[in-house]
Amino acid sequence: MKFFIDNWMLISVALASGGMLMWPLVSSGMAAGALSTSGAVQLINREKAVVIDVSETEEFAAGHVGGAKNLPLGQLETTLPGAVKNKSLPLILVCATGARANRALAVAKKLGYEQAHCLGGGLKSWKEANLPLEKA
């Protein structure tokens, strides 16, 4: 106890710096293990990842990642096996903010897509990175 009393300032600086290191993760809304935009681009270019947009049809038409397939979250469990037959291909799940994509990730893993990833921050982070969008 004497150590904590004698070194309270050092301990508070250590806690504050730890909080500052965690702030970008907390503020961006990224889930643990979520894929960054640069990581997504690398997967698309190097490993031919399939981009699945789990937004509703109207949202998808307003703007989506180039080459993405639209499979709304409510229909994902039934339509994903037909849309992506090769379960060894990496999947990148995208929605407007990343919330639906996180739920879709659980569905994809349950269906056996072990290389499924969720784009952290969703389409919002894709736009902020000035990456191209397609409109239907």
Please give a structural write-up.
It is built from 7 helices and 6 strands; from the N terminus they run αααβαββαβαβαβ. It has 136 residues and is α/β, with parallel strands linked by helices.
Q: What value does the Rg take, in angstroms? A: 19 Å
Strand order of the largest sheet: 3-1-4-5
Mean pLDDT: 89
Tell me roughly what share of residues is in helical segments: 40-55%
Strand content: 5-15%
**End-to-end separation:** 64 Å
Write the layout of secondary structure elements.
Elements: H1 2-6, H2 8-27, H3 37-47, E1 50-53, H4 57-62, E2 64-65, E3 69-70, H5 76-83, E4 91-94, H6 99-110, E5 116-118, H7 122-128, E6 133-134
Brief summary of the model shown:
The protein has 136 residues and is an alpha/beta fold. It has 7 helices and 6 strands, in the order αααβαββαβαβαβ.
